[in-house]
Amino acid sequence: MPRKLSLEVRHSISTLHTLKYSATVIVNALSLRNIAVSKSGVNKVTRENAAEEAGRPKPPSKATNSGKAKVRTAALVKKVKKATTGPNPPTQSQIALELGVSQATIQRVISEELEGKVRKKYRVHGLSDAMIQQRLAPGPRFLNWISGRKWENVLTIDEAWVYLTNCKGRRRIY
Hints:
By secondary structure, this protein is mainly alpha-helical.
């Protein structure tokens, strides 16, 4: 957008125009005073002055939309933040379906606006509380079983390789 002309320059242009100077002569006269004005700028100022003298109202400015409406609004960011915080958040595609935007938009909101780390959410077996208790229950029973000197008969093969190819012979444990 071009810079606005100062009030002094506008007044000089209107004064020279009332003296019946043409736009080209006005541009040359102002350039002698080291004021850079284009011919179209001079014509615009004279046209505005003529409309003002005639009593015509100035038409409203044509404020046009500069593009499509933004999808990543503050409301969307707030909804995504609410969905992603907490344990076991839904996947990006599930959030996108719920909010009616693309999955790429959700990814950009998480990584750029929320500055979070976007990770791949793999499908895993979810354990209920009852299942967790069942898995923890054998621990104390096992400890009771190896109490006393029975622990000497327990063979742990942690970080050991066991080959049972020759069962009648000596077993190799590395």
